[in-house]
Automatic annotation (TrEMBL):
It is found in: Cytoplasm, Cytoskeleton, Microtubule organizing center, Centrosome; Nucleus. This is Histone acetyltransferase. Residues 1-52 are annotated as: Disordered. GO terms for cellular component: ATAC complex; centrosome; nucleus. PANTHER family: GH11602P (PTHR45750), HISTONE ACETYLTRANSFERASE KAT2B (PTHR45750:SF2). It comes from Scophthalmus maximus. Acetyl-CoA binds at residues 514-516, 521-527, 552-555. It is an enzyme of class 2 (transferase). Keywords: Acyltransferase, Bromodomain, Cytoplasm, Cytoskeleton, Nucleus, Transcription, Transcription regulation, Transferase. The keyword Transmembrane helix does not apply. It catalyses: L-lysyl-[protein] + acetyl-CoA = N(6)-acetyl-L-lysyl-[protein] + CoA + H(+); L-lysyl-[histone] + acetyl-CoA = N(6)-acetyl-L-lysyl-[histone] + CoA + H(+). Residues 39-50 have a biased composition (Gly residues).
Length: 782
């Protein structure tokens, strides 16, 4: 039985679960479901609502009671303060109320002189410390008391050992808080958040990463789906570690148990024990927890949606039954992919990294193995960090809003000279006019009539467009189970395709045939076909294409990024690919960070951004200066900075210097300069390890504890340790990159610190010293 899917059943229960029915997730599409107590939920949160509401009602009743009644309640949890070092840790009535309490029983007046059944001291002796405590503090302590009593019930009714242990620990924590009149503080090695970026940030990055190009109405739909998904996670009931061990015995049991314990302490229990600090699951957990629940959660959510489709309101039906499954499928790929950029802390909104999602496209894999979670790509570890510009993010967002507004930027005509080759094909795909499918013949599966018809259509297209290729040879390869074909379908018939064979062990794919039927050419289909093929291979982690192109095809392949410079070692492909006489071997290396099917859209968007930024800058400095008359007087040249208005444009004089072409020479020079900046001059001090007198504030990254709010002010931090690591990884391929990072250290310091501070002065002095060393090295003119 499942602990999550509404109405399926319970494997174990806690008090609220027993009182309120089966566990479950909030109703799909619910805008805001009521929190659930441990192990409880209900299809629409009704059970949890009842349990949480009852606790809230009890607290309200107790807080409205007379003060003596409140003291009596607190006395039960207060140690005796009588003289003689009494060890009694809570007052016990001589006449305890019946269990369960009778509704018709009259409430007796509280007598502070009533002796304790355990130590014989009076109730007043147990609450003397509360005499001068404010009513607000008394009410806070009473809230903790009721939470303690509820957790006590949970401990005794819970059957799962791991969950029971957490309940008991929280019970003791709250009990101690009452005795010490303190605030409950969870003692843990780590405090929230436990992973960055959080699930919420990752999903928001996913929306930006995949759907930023969509019109505002469609993008709003995607945002609604994302909000719905995050809401489901926040009220999702995790399976216990023991249940997970039975279902996934090979999983990281210790890691899951740690996250389960954190989830109970910080997210689940505080939903009904409000004296504990509460966090949203999606804000303090990251991809690790999401991976552990996503598969089961997706399956149960979709099953629940199918079962309840008749109950869904009409306006939600299409959203949940059509778009939500697609949304989850796409998100699943990013959740389990090691190379997905949405989980990078450097992810920036407005930056495109990979393929964009088009809601109406039908790019599906009909034959072929299911995609497995990807392993890290070989080049991932050596990937250079991105250099981020100095343009304020607010300005970028403002410009983005302008260029995505249809009223502000008219659509480029498809007949325009500036439209991309594949723009018409991309728009047709979005409207559903064309579809892309990766298909192939199979000896293991039952023949699919539609796929077989498409394969026959592909054989005809290749035969007509490649007349010099034997028809039998084309037929054999198209129907060979080891080959696949990316087919282009229009009006239900094949109009083009690319036949290929993948060699995963060798790290490349051979493209065998590529053709589009003659009456459908010059529409951008060929370019869009190849772009889809590139993205398909990136998802399957094959980043090299090889093909033999005849004299008619060389031009097409060059436009698609192929060249005669083969990156794949010869030993990898000799004996694997088919050799053709009179053809030229060409190769293409794929970049997994490029969204090929949307690449032209991104370039267009970037051009618009630059154009708008230039227009804004021009508007700010729009001032006409008189022409230069000095040249009429015989002056041959003048300094650039003397031209009126030149500095207002943002121009800054940059010292010219030699750019070292030899990478090893550049590395050696920059290393020497960085060493001088970090340590004292060896001529004056023998100890080279001593820190430069002005470099000490910049040796390490700024710690949040030492500079609160630093990372809210400084968006792009830099320090000498990071520069050393970048230098070691050969990141600095030019002197300008090195100088830009060093300059950022000084700029950041002056932006965050006041001019009179010691840090500000250190930045100025070290900057002067740095440029002295740069000039001595000949990297800029003296």
């Amino acid at each position: 039985s499942s602990r999550n899917c509404a109405g399926i059943g319970l494997s174990h229960s806690s008090p609220l679960a027993e009182e309120n029915g089966p566990t479950g997730s909030p109703a799909i599409g619910a805008a805001g479901s009521v929190p659930a107590a441990p192990g409880a939920g209900g299809t629409e949160g009704s059970g949890a609502a009842g349990g949480s509401a009852r606790i809230a009602v009890k607290k309200a009743q107790l807080r409205s009671a007379p003060r003596p009644k409140k003291l009596e309640k607190l006395g039960v949890y207060s140690s005796c303060k009588a003289e003689g070092a009494c060890k009694c840790n809570g007052w016990k009535s001589q006449n305890p109320p019946p269990t369960p309490p009778r509704t018709d029983q009259q409430s007796n007046a509280v007598n502070l002189q009533e002796p304790c059944r355990s130590c014989s001291h009076t109730l007043g002796d147990h609450v003397t410390h509360l005499e001068n405590v404010s009513e607000e503090e008394i009410n806070r302590l009473l809230g903790i008391v009721l939470d303690v009593e509820y957790l006590y019930t949970c401990v005794h009714k819970e059957e799962d050992a791991d969950t029971k242990q957490v309940y008991f620990s929280l019970f003791k924590l709250l009990r101690k808080s009452i005795l010490q009149m303190g605030k409950p503080m969870l003692e843990a090695q780590e405090s929230p958040p436990f992973e960055k970026p959080s699930i919420e940030q990752g999903v928001n990055n996913f929306v930006q990463y995949k759907f930023s190009h969509l019109p505002s109405k469609e993008r709003q739909t995607i945002m609604e789906l994302a909000k719905m998904f995050l809401n489901q996670i926040n009220y999702w009931q995790l399976e216990t570690p023991s249940q997970r061990r039975q279902r996934v015995p090979t999983d990281d049991a210790a890691g899951y148990k740690a996250n389960y314990t954190r989830w109970l302490c910080y997210c689940n229990v505080p939903q009904f024990c409000d004296s504990l600090p509460r966090y949203e699951t999606t804000q303090i957990f990251g991809r690790t927890l999401l991976r552990s629940v996503f598969t089961v959660m997706r399956k149960q959510l979709l099953e629940q949606a199918r079962q309840e489709k008749d109950k869904l309101p009409p306006e939600k039906r299409t959203l949940i039954l059509t778009h939500f499954p697609k949304f989850l499928s796409m998100l699943e790929e990013e959740v389990y992919s090691h190379s997905s950029p949405i989980w990078s802390q450097d992810f920036l909104a407005g930056t495109c990294y990979d393929d964009e999602y088009l809601p109406l496209c039908s790019f599906t894999v009909l034959v072929g193995e299911k995609r497995k979670p990807s392993e890290p790509l070989p080049h991932e570890e050596n990937k250079r960090p991105r250099v981020v510009g100095d343009i304020p993010l607010d300005l970028i967002n403002e410009v983005m809003a302008t260029i995505t507004d249809p009223a502000a930027v008219p659509e480029t005509s498809l007949l325009s000279a500036h439209s991309a080759r594949d723009e018409a094909a991309r728009l047709e795909e979005r409207r559903g006019v064309i579809e892309f499918h990766v298909i192939g013949n199979s000896l293991n599966q039952k023949p699919n009539k539609r796929i077989l018809m498409w394969l026959v259509g592909l054989q005809n297209v290749f035969s007509h467009q490649l007349p010099r290729m034997p028809k039998e040879y084309i037929t054999r390869l198209v129907f060979d189970p080891k080959h696949k074909t990316l087919s282009l379908i229009k009006d239900g018939r094949v109009i083009g395709g690319i036949c290929f064979r993948m060699f995963p062990s060798q790290g490349f794919t051979e493209i065998v045939f590529c053709a589009v039927t003659s009456n459908e050419q010059v529409k951008g289909y060929g370019t869009h076909l190849m772009n889809h093929l590139k993205e398909y291979h990136i998802k399957h982690e094959i980043l090299n294409f090889l093909t033999y192109a005849d004299e008619y095809a060389i031009g097409y392949f060059k436009k698609q990024g192929f060249s005669k410079d083969i990156k794949v070692p010869k030993s990898k492909y000799v004996g694997y690919i088919k050799d053709y006489e009179g053809a030229t071997l060409m190769g293409c290396e794929l970049n997994p960070s490029i969204p090929y099917t949307e690449f032209s859209v991104i370039i267009k968007k970037q051009k618009e951004i630059i154009k708008k930024l230039i227009e804004r800058k021009q508007a700010q400095i729009r001032k006409v200066y008189p022409g230069l008359s000095c040249f009429k007087e015989g002056v041959r040249q003048i300094p650039i900075e003397s031209i009126p208005g030149i500095r207002e444009t943002g121009w800054k004089p940059v010292g010219k210097g030699k750019e070292l072409k030899d990478p090893d020479q550049l590395y050696s020079t920059l290393k020497t300069i960085l060493q001088h900046v970090k340590v004292r001059d060896s001529c004056t001090h023998m100890n080279m390890q001593a820190s430069h007198q002005n470099a000490w504030p910049f040796m390490e990254p700024v710690k949040k504890t030492e500079a609160p709010g630093y990372y809210q002010v400084i968006r792009f931090p830099m320090d000498l340790k990071t520069m050393s690591e970048r230098l070691k990884s050969r990141y600095y391929t030019t002197r300008k990159l090195f100088m830009a990072d060093m300059q950022r250290i000084f700029t950041n310091c002056r932006e965050y610190n006041p001019p009179e501070s010691e840090y500000y002065k250190c930045a100025n002095l070290l900057e002067k010293f740095f440029y002295t060393k740069i000039k001595e090295a000949g990297l800029i003119e003296k």
